[in-house]
Amino acid sequence: MNRPTGLSRRTLLATGAGALGAASLGLSPRGALAQNTVNFQLSWLHSTQFAGSYIAQDRGFWAERGLTVALQPGGPNAPVEPPVVSGTALMGISAADYTAAAVSEGAPFKIIGVAMQNNPFAIASLSANPVNQPSDMEGMRIGMALANTPVLQALCTINDVDFDAIEIIPTQYSPQPLVAGEVDCLLCWATDLPVAMTVQGVENTTMLMADHGYAVHSQTYIVTEDSLANRRDEIVALMAGEVAGWNAYREDTEAATDLTLAMFPDAGLDRETQLLQAERQVPLMFSDLTDANGFGWWTDDTVAANIETLGLLEREVTPDLWDRSILEEVHGA
Amino acid sequence: MTATALRPWLGPILILLAWESLAHLFASAFVLAAPSAIINYLFDNTALMTRALGVTLTNAAAGFVIGNAAAILLAGLAITLPRSENMIRALALVIFCLPLVATGPILRILFGPGTGPQITLAALAVYYTTLIPLLVGLRAVPSDWLDLVRSYGRGRMTALIRVRAMAALPYLVAGLQIAAPAAFLGAMVGEFTGAERGMGVLTIRAMRDMNIEMTWALATLATVVAVLAYLAIGLAARAVLTEEPPVILAAPATGKRAPHKNLAMVALSTAAILALWWGGLEALNLSSFFAKRPGDLIDALFLAPDAADTRAALSSALRETLVFLFPGYLAGLLTGASLAMALVMAPSLANTTMPLAIALRSVPIITTAPLVVLLLGRGATGTIALIAIMVFFPTLIACLHGLRQAPGRATEVMRSYAASPAAVLRYVRIPAMLPAFFAAARINVPASVLAVTVVEWLATGNGLGSLMALSASLSDYDMLWSAVVLTTLLSVIGYGLVGLIERRVLSTYAPEQLA
Lengths: 333, 515
Hints:
The complex is a heterodimer. Chain A is built from 14 helices and ten strands. Chain A has helices spanning 9-25, 51-58, 81-86, 96-104, 149-159, 176-179, 193-199, 225-230, 232-251, 253-263, 271-285, 288-293, 300-312, 325-331; strands at residues 36-41, 67-72, 91-94, 109-116, 121-126, 141-144, 167-170, 185-189, 204-208, 218-224. Chain A has a five-stranded mixed β-sheet, sandwiched between helices. In chain A, strands 7-6-8-5-9 form a five-stranded mixed β-sheet. The termini of chain A are far apart. By secondary structure, chain B is mainly alpha-helical. Helix content of chain B is 81%, strand content 0%. Chain B is globular and about 70 Å long. At the A-B interface, helix 1, helix 3, helix 4, helix 6 and helix 7 of A face helix 3, helix 5, helix 9, helix 12 and helix 15 of B.
């Protein structure tokens, strides 16, 4: 599935059309940011995964910057990239690997912030037969989407694990195959399926791939190059509200959870599950790096580590995929 | 209550009891929720469930009205301008065969936030199964009635409204009944494209959270609503109509035509589709990053340096899909036809079987897909069973109708010779059933392709369904659109092949249908 990158005719055409589409939207007048409404495309259904944004909405962190933000939920059949390319959404939440794939297909994206410093991918197993380190997977059956095979391959390469000694069983994204004993472990996010098992009383073990060398920025904020050039003020306001929201989230994950449940009573959210998810994503989002420089930050070193892991996923990217100018303005660096 | 009054309830009660005990037996596998647990969940979460049901039902109803109105308009157009009929049929079939997995995200871009994709997918799911019986119904008019209209100096429009529309009413009802569960499924899948509320949203949540009670409660609620809609349309129809609604699911294949004319029609339709595809994307000014034109696909499939890889990925996905599609499709057809024969031989069975059959067909496949795979394993059995479930109900209904249409005189002659019921079945009823059977077999081709791609997407993770979902997440839109074309072609070609077999068989057993 991995395509060679490089500038084919298709890429050029696509970039051109994308830029044209965005430019035509850029024509509308936007003098003093008089309560512009912008769409912000989330990557999944409403849940505490985006609770920082809900706080920004609820406490007026965007309103006080003259911005009205509409948070658009994602879903299993709602890719983030098209609305951002077409200009329907000013900003979207993606991940470095998906963004790299989109860029190689001609999407003019820049990553302007990194919500998850540590990739949330993990290997989940039952505590009776745990995976504590990558080599434990040898001889096991792993349940995952076949699409994620390169992810598992990269983890094996980084940790000198025999990839061929692991049996991949394609499964839907659910803890059920593990609980029913169809597989020995799952490739999933540390913040969703293991949380579901814990809440249902199934004892489980989670091995975070980021702790074993898998460095891919996740929950990254993406915008088009054109928006970055022409709608800068709105993007700065959007990111500033976002940063304030997530800082408040970190202070009180319980309040963030309650706000999420109150804002989306129709989403069928379970408080215990949502709170546990909210707590578990804190160490993925905040680190010494963000303590020193602010939410969403990255350095040349973390980008270099990302480029290396992305290379193992056969995604060739250059450091200029990341553009820190918006964050620098927000954090006053 | 006497024993006879109890009898119709015996089957359902036994099933519920078995279900309840199985659920308790396998509680640790997180697969099956007991009926008692489902009822408990529904009681504890009445407000949430009611709101979600309201949202999805509203979208489904809007799609139902729009889709059926479109079908009626198209049918009217085809009858008033007979030359347009073949083109309308061809375009309608192709649009009906477009896979949900791929149309969803495109609709989201076109409509932006809101309920646009939910309503559109519901409308797309229903219009074809109404259009086709309507086209039959509008023709099911004695020609002297039309002569009468003409003798009064009135034109085609009067004939359409005064005569044809009345004759077509029973056929319209037949289409509407099938449309009800389909609209609900369309609205739920529409919610997968990014929605804040509804039954589809809750279904995703329940599966992620491994909340078995919630999953089964949602499936139960959706089934009950779909069955009620099915029954309500049937009841309303019986109040209005004097005769039982016919269940002709698709018109018999068109009569003999010179092969070169057929080829010309195919070429013309293909040209029209390509023009619509290219022109539509250009008119909507959609970015070619995700909205690929025919030229982009030719480039990706034949000219690009990685064209061979793309083709290899597509053909291996196609093979994976076909391996499940064929057995599932055939199993569904055979089960449907045999059950229909069993019911005709032993009518008392119908009391238990029919409600169960309607329920099975009405359960939205997006909730059943993972469940059936959990119950039957992720090998071939689960997928094949799901396709069979999608196929068997329309086949059953159509075959029952066909079997009952056996000419009374022929049956009486057989009886007077003391022929056994089995002989009557073999020599009279089965030949009478064949036209309806083939009509069902054709319309089931797209239905089974829909089933297999949804199962692959949501449960087993291989084949064309998974390839489409995967390429969308990796922004590989050349691959996605290629897979869409392939999936659509698969349905359309399958539909055509069944039509060919149908003509062969009917020319022997029911030549009047081909007139």
